[in-house]
Amino acid sequence: MFAGTHTAIVTPFRNGKLDEDALCKLVALQFDNGVQGVVPCGTTGESPTLSYEEHDRVIQIAVQCAKGRGVVMAGTGSNATSEAIEMTQKAEAAGATAILQVAPYYNKPTPEGLFRHFKAIAECTKLPIMLYSISGRCGVEIGIDVVARLHEACPNICAMKEAEGKPDRVSQMRSLLPPAFEILSGDDSLTLPFMSVGAVGIVSVAGNLIPREMSTMVQHALKGEWAKAQAIHAKFNPLFSAFLKLSTNPIPIKTAMALKGLCDGEMRLPMCEMGEAQKAELKAVMEKLGLL
């Protein structure tokens, strides 16, 4: 279901409010350029800064503007299980076709707590669920043994967005979980290394800016056309590196999209604009790649 490219869509703001028109255009742009899905209300979508009403509205708009052309995987994770359940049920009612569940953040649950948390969410929905492990942000890793237990207990927990930065974790999951369980990279720069050991795609930040290129790269890899995939990776790796080096996601991608004229680039505190030196460096990378 998830093989391919799914863009973690930014949430455009204008004058402090959700820019609904811009969001709809961004979602349409993704599907016009061959991605398999969009992921609203994730890290890149600044979900921690959205009100509950805005969170619901972003998902509704993504569903409406996707027009059934691919997956709309709604980010509905929380560090409170009851809140994650409520947001998941609202996303399902809005027409989302899948759910992204990040590990609970700040409260650092035990492995048993993680198991019970995700199991309770899975039991509240019929939608397929992709787990999201990113301990650098959440303070806790979703252990591979927990993933295996969850998939056995809840078949709709059927995928992982792997953002721990370790190809070996992909290999371990691939050896412990059935082929139907899909693993996607959570880092653009690691897409091909992860796919070489069993991942089937990417939940992409860069896809906001270069959806066609990311989709093409992943499709080549899925077909075993590694030289073609590697050529695209090599070309755009300076962009991937700039996004990681210059500031915290989603500051660089939103800045790049503003430079490209795709959205206003406005962020919400505590996220703020990058410094002028970093912005100039990002602009130079984009110009060298022919993106400006």
Low-confidence segments? none
Identify the overall geometry: globular
- N to C succession of SSEs: EEEHEHEHEHEHHEHEHEHHHH
Largest sheet: 8 strands, parallel
- Would you state the CATH class? Alpha Beta
Mean pLDDT: 96
Which structural class do the helices and strands define? alpha/beta
Number of distinct helices: 12
Number of strands: 10
At CATH level 3, the topology is TIM Barrel
Explain what you see.
By secondary structure, this protein is of the alpha/beta class. An 8-stranded parallel sheet has the order 9-8-7-6-5-4-1-10. It has a two-stranded antiparallel ribbon with strand order 2-3. The chain is globular. β4 (37-38), α2 (52-66) and β5 form a beta-alpha-beta unit. It has helices at 20-32, 52-66, 81-94, 111-122, 135-138, 144-153, 167-176, 191-196, 211-222, 226-246, 251-260, 276-288, and strands spanning 4-7, 13-14, 17-18, 37-38, 71-75, 98-102, 129-133, 157-162, 182-185, 201-204. It is 48% helix and 13% strand. The protein has one domain: Aldolase class I (TIM Barrel, Alpha-Beta Barrel). The longest helix has 21 residues, at 226-246. α4 (111-122) packs parallel to α6 (144-153) and α6 runs parallel beside α7 (167-176).
Q: How would you sum up this structure in a few lines?
A:
By secondary structure, this protein is an alpha/beta fold. The protein contains 12 helices and 10 strands.
What's the topology here?
Blueprint: E1 4-7, E2 13-14, E3 17-18, H1 20-32, E4 37-38, H2 52-66, E5 71-75, H3 81-94, E6 98-102, H4 111-122, E7 129-133, H5 135-138, H6 144-153, E8 157-162, H7 167-176, E9 182-185, H8 191-196, E10 201-204, H9 211-222, H10 226-246, H11 251-260, H12 276-288
Parallel strand pairs: 1-4, 1-10, 4-5, 5-6, 6-7, 7-8, 8-9
Antiparallel strand pairs: 2-3
Helix pairs in contact: 1-2, 2-3, 3-4, 4-6, 6-7, 9-10, 10-12, 11-12
